[in-house]
Amino acid sequence: MRIEFKALSKTFGTARAVRGFTATVDRPIMLGVIGPSGAGKSTLLRMINRLTEATGGACLVDGTDVLALRGGAKRRWQRDCAMIFQQFNLVPRLDVVTNVMLGRLNGMNTAASLFGLFARRDLEDALAALDRLGIAEHAMKRAEALSGGQQQRVAIARALMQRPKMILADEPIASLDPMNAEIVMQALRRIHEDEGITVICNLHTLDTARTYCDRVIGMRLGEIVFDGAASELTTSAAREIYGAGAAFNEAATSTSLDALAATA
Ligand SMILES: Nc1ncnc2c1ncn2[C@@H]1O[C@H](COP(=O)(O)OP(=O)(O)OP(=O)(O)O)[C@@H](O)[C@H]1O
Predict the structure, then answer these.
(1) Whose CB among 142, 147, 214, 259 lies 3.0–4.6 Å from 254's, allowing a Cys bridge?
(2) What ipTM was estimated for this complex?
(3) What is the pTM of this model?
(4) C-alpha 159 to ligand 1 mean position (Å)
């Protein structure tokens, strides 16, 4: 899949959340998007998935501007690029496996989905997805009974049920402790490698981007201020992104256990 962002922009009233975002992803990669709060990271992902309408520019996926799709074609695109959110967005009182099967709803006719008539195949696929994420034993529990890290893995299993061609993860580990953050990032990386699909992941933390991503785009005030290999993400590049002065402390943007220990 080839993705070309061409001057993608979003203005809220007079506030320019994303300005002229231009970049090309010409093979399936794990792309990290980093930057301080308000840099435009969420808005970027929401525009790609059409949860937020762009006010300018284009997003060409294999040559088709997905921002111009309407009706069924738009819904198919939204199924093709599964979203994962910081707050998991599960139905708390429903059991885990049903939450996962909800990922199939887009592909079902409305009557069948209203009556909860999931096919046996959907159940088998949901259990397989949970197994892949190492949480099959929790299938029958209510989603709310699981830890944050487990809930995020349920959300990833639900995303897999869409058979996505791309995964957009908006701060998927921001609510998690370091150990669960690692498990969730490893799961996303494995999916990228096994399925050969692009994963675009908004992250707050530099070390996570360095560890799990192939390429990193740094945003500040809606603009790209860094675009390079994860290995090029030096402390001085990070200063540029975060706008921090000489006192910039990497550990402050870190979730790793080592870095936390170093600041304690
Ligand atoms: N619905 C909205 N209405 C008005 N302004 C908005 C809206 N959504 C986002 N913004 C503004 O757009 C800018 C970018 O926000 P966005 O949430 O994309 O940033 P972010 O980098 O994802 O930040 P965070 O890391 O805090 O989630 C911010 O200035 C924000 O206030």
Answers:
(1) 259
(2) 0.95
(3) 0.90
(4) 24
